[in-house]
């Protein structure tokens, strides 16, 4: 099997190392040796340390490498939309098999890749694109194909999980926790894709597409990052026996009219400390899958890093190589259900709302009335003196309200109108609550 490796950075170098270190085992498992035909990079002169590979294999001509007749499998670990999309479409149309870790491209235009794979007859595998080393996509696209997946809830971004875990453990604010994540090498120099939720949203789109047999793209995913999460939010969550996590939630179900649809969202949410995802700390990832017959399944492990990601890439390389030797390809994309994607306003969720209100008769009634007007049921109310102290400021009170499940649009409208009440001095924090009873 001749491999074209596109990219030799954090992941690519570890792919090269594994190919070298495991070559005998890989050959035995596949039934043929794996050989690197070429490695496409941007900078030929870059110092790549003691990489166990012939330096003459490096090239800057990725397209030329892909087009070579002696290349069977193309491994793409460059990232980004272009030129990766053009390369992979070219490779797949030419009948090569492709292994990629590129979640951004799959979420942006997975359809172009799947269509090209169907046209060329090769395989398209992308286990490393979501949750790094964790075997998650193969179970969704194979093992669970006899079942009906109803919900996928996950922590799929390591950087933000590190930041939120640090905020929970130390009481630090977002900026301080981000600084620590950067110093330790978890956050990139430009952390926007992680902290604004773009990375998790791309992964959510890929998970939803596989789980619900429906094409879901990045644009279909409601996305909120963690930059607005404050130390006070985290303290408030702790007071309720909860912690805050950036969750990706993909759910399938019927609405009140019986119409089946999916909803896919990424946002910070409070979850009870007893929830299995609450104990996922540091930069780890975990995904909780619920299926009608299987029940609840949990997948946990390292979601990033060169070696863990390369493990998933190599697993795919073995699978597609075996297929090529046997003259078969894996089942093509399964998008037959073609379900509509619900707007966020129709997603069912719960809110935790912290208000600073005037402390006088009738205030609770006015606040509760606002919830009732939007058909939102209140689950719990806690009132204390403003500022949380025993004495408070005298004429103010802190009011913490947790709702029952309601459509997000109704909850958002309630908060909007609460802000307009003159008895509400400020809305201190609004967080969604997931995973509770
Ligand atoms: P890096 O930035 O470390 O490496 C990118 C590589 O691509 C480099 O070798 C670079 O060349 C090469 N490259 C960039 N542009 C071009 C170009 N135009 N032509 C040829 N080569 C080019 O990225 P990572 O290894 O971190 O990530 C690779 C992919 O894996 C991405 O899709 C990422 O989302 C995904 N991924 C990464 C994870 C991680 O932990 N890092 C985890 C899961 C997925 P040069 O070396 O010369 O600069
Ligand atoms: N930046 C990503 C993370 C890398 O923090 O999880 C893995 O996709």
Overview of this structure, please?
There is one protein chain. The protein is of the alpha/beta class and 437 residues long. The chain has 3 domains: 2-136 and 306-326, 3-Layer(aba) Sandwich (Rossmann fold); 139-302, 2-Layer Sandwich (Dihydrodipicolinate Reductase, domain 2); 347-433, 2-Layer Sandwich (Alpha-Beta Plaits). The chain is built from 14 helices and 17 strands. Strands 7, 8, 9, 10, 11, 12, 13, 14, 15, 16 and 17 form an 11-stranded mixed sheet that branches. The longest helix is centred in the C-terminal third of the chain and has 21 residues, at 306-326. The chain is elongated and about 80 Å long. The mean pLDDT is 95. It binds NADPH dihydro-nicotinamide-adenine-dinucleotide phosphate and L-homoserine.
Summary keywords:
437 residues, alpha/beta, 11-stranded mixed sheet, binds L-homoserine, elongated, 26% strand, Rossmann fold, Dihydrodipicolinate Reductase, domain 2
CATH topology of the largest domain: Dihydrodipicolinate Reductase, domain 2
Q: Considering the protein shown, what is the CATH homologous superfamily of the largest domain?
A: Dihydrodipicolinate Reductase, domain 2
In this entry the ligands are: NADPH dihydro-nicotinamide-adenine-dinucleotide phosphate, L-homoserine
Number of folding domains?
Answer: 3
Major sheet attributes: 11 strands, mixed
Structural class: alpha/beta
Poorly predicted ranges (pLDDT <50, ≥5 residues)?
none
